[in-house]
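Final report, Chapter 2: Outcomes

The project's central promise was a pipeline that accepts a single protein chain and returns its three-dimensional structure in a standardized token representation, suitable for archiving and comparison. That pipeline is now operational. To close this chapter, we reproduce one record exactly as it appears in the project archive, with the input sequence first and the structure output second.
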Amino acid sequence: MSLRLPAEWEPHQSTWLSWPHNSEDWPGKFATIPFVYLEILRHLIRSERVTLLVPNSRAEARVRRLISDISLPLDPITFLSIPTDRSWCRDYGPIFLEETRGKRKRIVIAGFRFNGWGRYLNYRRDAAVPRRAAHKLSLPLLRCSFRSHPIVLEGGAIDVNGRGTLLTTEECLLDRRRQPRNPDFSKTDYRRVFTRFLGAPNVVWLARGLAGDDTGGHVDQLARFVNPTTILTLAPESLSGADAEAAAENLLRLRSARLENGRRPTIITVPAPQPIFFRKHRLPASYLNFYIADSVVLVPTFNDPRDRTALELIAECFPDREVVGIHSVDLAWGFGSVHCSTQQQPAVRGEAL
């Protein structure tokens, strides 16, 4: 039996979203957030089915009315009544794995733990989502532990090419004090975890993330695979101060990295938008927080002159998909963006070759 986390560009059964309901995540901005989600939904349902988590039946009825008000079809949407604390489905939502047994393949849900990014206390409902999703979908829930310890892992902390290579950061996974996930784990321990549960023994460690990122260095703001051999990352010259230094270090590491086959990846740099602030808070704005659906790529935009450059660079990497900008200034006030809001459910690919 082997396990693998498919790359995001591989065929999807569905994209998962959690309908926003926690106004405290967007103080002073919450009224606009449902409309951002409707825009994400509008583009996704042209590409594939959407699984939408709602807290209860009353909330589902409200969301259905909103969707109907803008003349979107409801047929491509599956509503699941699963209570959540926040809307960042990437991090607590089910991480779907492809399990291979002989010539048979099936999708299973990884039972990783979620601890509120090692920062927030109200995360218990979010942490229960994989178990509840496995029950509702009648999918196996895989117990993910190492040395008898449950493994804490968020979807935004990793990015894979589906062939055996994984990107992550030292700031996020090796932090022992500020926002700890697995404080006793070493790089060797993580390599064993990623090999066993994600089919990714080749780990590329970046250094640290951007100022304002309350996840403590999630890689999906910093560097992303766009195909098995190409990685997009932040251009250091588009940043300043500590962010520029971090991006330069990450770029240096990527340029010296090797893929699972021993070859060097192709590295393409993408500018960062100008820093965005709200009530003196720095917001984690990055074009690399895009989401790859079956026929569309949703890219966060920020009313910035660099939006067009970023969209063009990303579009060149996806000639078979439409690249669409999603206005994300308000969304970023919740310290997340498009990729943070989504989670892909891979399609079963049939028999192994």
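Archive annotation: The CA atoms of residues 274 and 304 lie 7 Å apart.
This record, like all others produced under the grant, will remain available to the consortium after the project formally closes.
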